[in-house]
Write a structure and sequence with these properties.
By secondary structure, this protein is mainly β. 6% of the residues lie in helices and 40% in strands. The protein contains 4 helices and 61 strands. Strands 45-46-47-48-49-50-51-52-53-54-55 form an 11-stranded antiparallel β-sheet, with no helix packed on it. A hairpin with a 7-residue loop joins strand 7 (83-85) and strand 8 (93-99). Helix 1 (129-142) runs antiparallel to helix 2 and helix 3 packs antiparallel against helix 4. It is flat. 29% of the residues are buried.
Length: 919
Amino acid sequence: MTFDLRLVAHSPNGPRLGVLPHPLSVEAGWPLNDVPSLKVSYAAAAAGADLLAQPCEVAVEWSADGGTVWTEDTDSRFLLIKRRGDGADATGLVRFELPGYAWMLRKVVLHPGAAALVNGGRPFLSATPGAIVQTFLAEAQARGSVPGLVWDFTPTHDSAGQPWSKILTIYYRPGIDALTTLINLADQGVLDFRASGRTLQLYNADTEMERDLASGPAPVDLRYGRDIVEAPDDGTFEDVASLVLVVGDNGLVKTYTNAAAAQPWGPWEQYVGHGGVSDEGTATLLAQAALGRAERERVQRTRGITVYGAQWLPWRDYRPGDRVLVPGAGRALESLRLRQVTLARNDRGVVGGALVLNDRFLEKELRLARRTAGIVGGSTADGGSGARPAPAPEAPEPRTPAAPQGLIVDPAAYLDEHGFPRGQVTVTWGSVTQDAGGVALNVGGYELFMRVNTTGEPWFLVASTEPTDTTATYSPLVVGTGYAFKVRAVNLGKLGPFSSVVAVTIPDDTTAPPVPTAPQLSTRLGVVRVLWDGMGVSSRPMPSDFFHVRVWMQNPLAPGWADIGFLDAAGSILVPGLPYGADRQFRFTSVDRSGNESGPSTAVTIATVPLVQGDAANESITTGALAANAVTTDKLAVGAVEAGTIAAGAVTADKLQAVLTLTSRLVAGNPTQARVELNSSGLAAYNASGQQTASISASSGAVSIVGQFASGVTGARVVVNPAGAVAPEIRFIPGSGTNQSRIYSDGSMYTGEATLVMESGTNQASTAMCRLHHAAGFWRVAILDPSNGAQRGGYMVADETQTQLGWFHPTQASQQFLMSSTGTLHRGTWKLGGADSGLIMLEVSVAGNGNYHVVNFGYTMLTVPSLVWSAQRGSGASALPAPTDLIVYSRTQSSVFFRSPTNATSATVITFSVWAWRT
């Protein structure tokens, strides 16, 4: 027995009726986050046909062995609501088309509800997906609709019992159906859904319904000839573009390019228009999403499967949404996500099927599309018609608007033009349609404020919007930093109260770069050369935040991968000192500037070979093995003795029989190819193509060299364009060993730019090195860990928008200053002791007992400063009483007036430390 399908009839919302034993054909399709479908052909005279004569439910059940245990899996209950037959057909064949049980949500529509509509839309303010969908269903059942439908999620938790990870502020027009809403929420990445029998299940997106079966000790690997019988791929270049024009509000017009995009006919362009976007960070995020989707050929992978002799079976081992290993491009196994499973059973009982899959790049692009839809839609997900305030006549006097409700802040990370992660937020709130007293009102607009989420930090205005615009975006922000936001409405200059405060932490970039292509290995003279072509698998270019590729090696007989070096770009490293004839495996991983690391590349094996092969083993021919006069001039062929075979000092003046006079030229080597030549013009060297590589002019003494130039052979020296270097460079060698510093130009970091890079050697403990980048609009110096190139110490970064100065350590608290047009931000801990203490600006010692004091700053600040006071016990008192009534009366730009606490004795001298800063 083997895998099989069967059909079972159930009465509508009722019990099981029986098996449908003789279908002529069955075809079922299970797409991810959509309504499944079932097609059945049945003869009117066949057993069980009577069960299909009236509306019913049909369950598709599967059995791994064809009969022992039958299982109805998720999304496998269908509604018999459509049939087609031909009365003239003597066989009485009837064809049925059945949608999945979730199709019934089309028959659930949203009613207006008790709250007032906003421009025809019903508001859902700061609502979870569970709360929104349950509102549809519970209200419908209260009206008597869909009585058999149940659900196992709540407004606070999904069907797996996990808290909802997203909230929404959104408006839906009455009349929209629940299925349209549900699919829209899934398309925006808010949730995943399916039905289990008659139970609707909702999950946080990409959690329960995205199992990773492609990794671990026993991955699900579908292979040709065993599990897969067909592998058609449909590809198109229709959407490819290498340039995108982004047009936003307030004159924002930006052009972004992707030189790595496919360009078989040259550059293609694309337009992205987004109203409401006026900051460059949001425009960059939208452009990067568009360029990512348009970077290469779009390919849909379909894989035909067999259930006969297969190791892995659908439903038993995998289901829609799972990640499995499947042959991709080039027949290599890839981790792909199942987007649809289709199974069919013909009239002979033969079962076959097909899978539709996405690779991880397409899945990433889907998430980017969801992110940009959220930005444009003005909420976590775009499913409503938008919010508009209800019209009302203006009052003769300005009235105070009510506080906005439903504030949502959606943070995101993006890469700036230099490949560094930055933060962006999309902020959404509900429309204000009334004044503080509940009377209808047309507001004049909204003001969004933000601050670093630390007590005492100042608030500042970051966006003002039009009356109909309840969404704002803002960037750049610092990843890993918490920010707080609040919004208020404005009416004819009258400022309304603020909304509640919402705080978020800007996420860091968590997307690892592509897996690098496999190493290309070669061996010569006992050394292994490990080459990387600079690309990711499937010809995927490295992203703008690419940092380097790590090179790993292991002995397959003693497994254990060791990091042996890194490559900043396409190139190679040499691995000496390996034993002859012993296999070594090499592989790569790629790392970005946020520390995200890819999975390993394909491992490649090589063994070094001896310098001399065959009978002439090492040192087998020595001078003692040659008879006297065994080698004479008549036994040497022309050219048999070259410069490399003559020992140093073998040719001396006393061995020359005559004086050599140069009449035209003296050539060592091939007269027309590789040679060194002395002629009347001077000394010159040529390569194998006859191209001059070095020359010394006899008349002027000018020296010209193509290739390596060294100021010495050993000891402290400078080497220009050293042999084996990936790019031309100047290398400074202080003495023996490999601890060297270098200077080189890198043209791969920024398109069309030459970046000057300076690298130091390592310290004695090999724990630190320094690297400096000079680019046209970017400058960076940092202390790095030489073992992996990761930042570990002080650094400074400057570009056209901001400057960062700080100290970073992967396991210790970091310190950072960030200065930009919006202000100066410090992250870290201020030092409180010593003469260079933090922000202590001055100290004042005063007597207690309620005296009045004026403290002059000594200079006039630009604005009245904010102050922080701390008191410490001074001389003349055994204890300092708690200052219960310390009062600051006034502050100016140059002084502060205050009274000391009255509960201190007059002999008590109190020292106040005063912090002051501009607001």
